[in-house]
C-alpha cells in the first residue's frame, strides 16, 4: 500500500519508518526539507496513486485545520484523510463534514506509544465509517503492536480521539500517584534508598507497569532528580477530559486533581513535578527544564 504522511517529527518520523519496515510505501512531507520526501502537499498528492490515503501528524488546532483545508482542495472523491495527531474529538466532526462535502473520507486516530513506538508498536484508537477504516486497515496493522491487541475501531468519527483523550487523562492520574509516592519516600527520614524501593516494585506487586519501569529508568539517570526543575506542561488533553466529564456529569476526582497538580508546578519548583517531567521525557521524549544552579 502507498501512504502519504504529513508531519515527520518525533512521532511521525518513527511511524514512517515502522510502516516502511512492513513493506508499505510512504511518501512523507514536512516543513523541514531535511525530513521530507517531497517539497509540498501538492507534490505529495500528485505522487500517490488513487484512491489516496493521507495521514496527518501535525499539532492540534490551527495547524491541523490548515492541513485538512489544503488537502480538501487537492484530493479527489474516494480519497481518505486520517488525523493521527492529538486533535480535540469535537474538531473531527467538523473535518469529516468538510471533507465529505468533497467526497473525501475521514478517519480520526488516537496514537499512543511515544518514542518507543518504532520498536514496540503504537496503540491505535480510530473512529470513522467502516468503509473508510477498511481502506486504512493495512496501515493500522503495520503500526500496531504484535499480537491481537493494541488497536480498536472505537466508533464513529471522533471516537478515536475521545478514547485517546481519556487514555491521557488516566495517564495523568497514574503519573501523579507515582510522583506523590516518590516524594513521600524521599521525605521520610527512615527511608534510605528510594530508587531501589521503586525497582523492587517491578516484580510481584499490583502496581508494576511500564510507567513504573520508566520511573526506575529516570531514577537510574538521576537518582534524586536533582537535575530537573519541578515543572510539567499539559498537552491539553487532560483539560479536555475534565471538560468532557463536566459535560457528561461523570465524576473524575483523581484525573482532575492530577491536572490541577500540573498547574501548581508553574507556581513553584514542585518535587512531584520532577517525577512527572522525568516520566514524560522517558516515554514520549518530551522536553524537560533543567534545574537552575
Automatic annotation (TrEMBL):
Keywords: Gluconate utilization, Oxidoreductase. The keyword Oxidoreductase applies. Pfam families: 6PGD, NAD_binding_2. Residues 160-293 form the 6-phosphogluconate dehydrogenase C-terminal domain. GO terms for biological process: D-gluconate metabolic process; pentose-phosphate shunt. One of its GO terms (molecular function) is NADP binding. Belongs to the 6-phosphogluconate dehydrogenase family. PANTHER family: 6-PHOSPHOGLUCONATE DEHYDROGENASE (PTHR11811). This is 6-phosphogluconate dehydrogenase.
Amino acid at each position: 500500500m502507498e501512504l502519504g504522511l504529513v508531519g515527520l517529527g518525533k512521532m511521525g518520523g518513527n511511524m514512517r519508518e515502522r510502516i516502511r519496515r512492513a513493506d508499505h510505501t510512504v511518501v512523507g512531507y514536512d516543513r523541514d526539507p531535511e525530513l521530507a520526501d517531497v517539497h509540498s502537499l501538492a507534490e505529495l498528492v500528485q505522487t500517490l496513486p488513487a484512491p489516496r490515503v493521507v495521514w496527518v501528524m501535525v499539532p492540534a488546532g490551527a495547524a491541523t485545520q490548515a492541513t485538512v483545508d489544503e488537502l480538501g482542495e487537492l484530493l479527489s472523491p474516494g480519497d481518505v484523510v486520517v488525523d493521527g495527531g492529538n486533535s480535540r474529538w469535537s474538531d473531527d466532526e467538523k473535518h469529516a463534514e468538510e471533507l465529505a462535502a468533497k467526497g473525501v473520507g475521514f478517519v480520526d486516530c488516537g496514537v499512543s506509544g511515544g518514542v518507543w513506538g518504532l520498536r514496540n508498536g503504537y496503540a491505535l484508537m480510530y473512529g470513522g465509517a467502516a468503509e473508510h477504516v477498511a481502506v486504512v486497515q493495512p496501515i493500522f496493522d503495520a503500526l500496531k503492536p504484535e499480537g491481537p491487541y493494541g488497536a480498536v475501531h472505537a466508533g464513529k468519527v471522533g471516537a478515536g480521539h475521545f478514547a485517546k483523550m481519556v487514555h491521557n487523562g488516566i495517564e495523568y492520574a497514574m503519573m501523579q500517584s507515582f510522583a506523590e509516592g516518590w516524594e513521600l519516600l524521599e521525605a521520610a527520614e527512615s527511608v534510605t534508598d528510594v530508587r531501589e524501593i521503586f525497582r523492587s516494585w517491578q516484580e510481584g506487586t499490583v502496581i508494576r507497569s511500564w510507567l513504573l519501569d520508566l520511573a526506575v529508568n529516570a531514577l537510574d539517570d538521576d537518582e534524586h532528580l536533582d537535575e530537573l526543575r519541578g515543572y510539567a506542561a499539559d498537552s491539553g488533553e487532560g483539560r479536555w477530559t475534565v471538560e468532557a466529564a463536566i459535560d457528561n456529569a461523570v465524576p473524575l476526582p483523581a484525573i482532575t486533581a492530577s491536572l490541577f497538580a500540573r498547574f501548581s508546578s508553574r507556581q513553584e519548583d514542585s518535587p512531584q513535578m520532577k517525577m512527572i517531567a522525568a516520566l514524560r521525557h522517558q516515554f514520549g521524549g518530551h522536553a524537560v527544564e533543567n534545574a537552575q544552579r
